[in-house]
Design brief:
Structural class: alpha/beta
Number of helices: 8
Shape: globular
Largest sheet: 8 strands, mixed
Length: about 260
């Protein structure tokens, strides 16, 4: 696929670029600051991508990048969600611009754009609660719920979106260089509810049971940035239609890496 990446100077975005190249995708990077990109990522990587400069809130410029390069897919990792519920949303301008650009580009290109957007585990439903999101119990990073609402309003015949919802992501390496082959990843995935959720015998206790279950699972969802990047790049190489139109959670499997 030919993939437009927004947010390539961020933690996961910078890992996505070599991961996509390793999976034989063609990559177009959309950044505000080309110099920052080249300072962050080794030239062995940046020499193999097309670079477009622009603002992530400029829907017209993003649409033009998608159309001019005839992109099949996009990945948006640009923006940081507001942490506290009383803070003004910080990334909805980006989400609206990117999703609108994808829909408009699809209409011009006459094929749907596959899109991965970065969210957070907080936007997933708590198993056994009839669709109540984690953010209804732990009101942090609640803006990811707004991202889900925005994407849900877009026509899937034009934007085949998925909302990637990890918990904490750490780096396996601070160096970002070319990958000769895909690194593989040890992640299992689930849609709309957290992957590999461990049921608690206390979950049915009124008022506090769900909180006990949430905090009992909380530490089990840390992943590596590089693994998450490989997961998305691998999906675009062999698309999983079951992810389209859904929130996607990942968790490290006990069985090791999937190549």
């Amino acid at each position: 696929m030919k993939v437009l990446v927004l947010g390539a100077t961020g933690n996961i975005g910078s890992r996505l670029v070599p991961a996509l190249l390793a999976h034989k995708h063609q990559v177009v990077v959309y950044v505000r600051n080309e110099r920052k990109l080249k300072d962050l990522i080794d030239s062995s990587v940046t020499s193999q991508v097309a670079i477009v400069t622009g603002d992530a809130t400029d829907a017209q410029a993003i649409k033009e990048a998608l159309v001019n390069y005839q992109c099949d897919a996009l990945i948006n990792s640009a923006g940081l969600a507001a942490i506290l519920p009383w803070q003004a949303p910080r990334m909805q301008g980006i989400i609206n611009a990117v999703s609108t650009a994808a829909v408009d580009a699809s209409k011009e290109l006459k094929y749907p754009i596959r899109g991965w957007f970065l969210g957070g585990l907080i936007a997933m439903d708590v198993p056994g609660t009839n669709g109540n999101k984690i953010l209804n119990y732990i009101p942090l990073l609640t803006e990811h719920g707004l991202t889900f609402d925005c994407l849900s309003s877009k026509p899937q015949e034009h934007l085949e979106w998925s909302l990637f919802c990890p918990s904490e992501m750490r780096h396996a390496s601070q160096t970002i260089t070319i990958l000769e082959t895909p690194r593989g990843n040890p992640l299992i995935a689930s849609v709309d509810v957290p992957a590999g959720w461990q049921s608690s015998r206390f979950a049915s206790i009124p008022l506090i049971g769900t909180y006990i279950s949430l905090f009992g699972n909380a530490l089990g969802y840390t992943t590596d940035l590089e693994d998450c990047a490989d997961f998305i790049a691998a999906d675009l190489a062999k698309p999983n239609r079951s992810f389209v139109g859904h929130r996607v959670s990942v968790k490290v499997s006990d069985k090791g890496k999937v190549e």
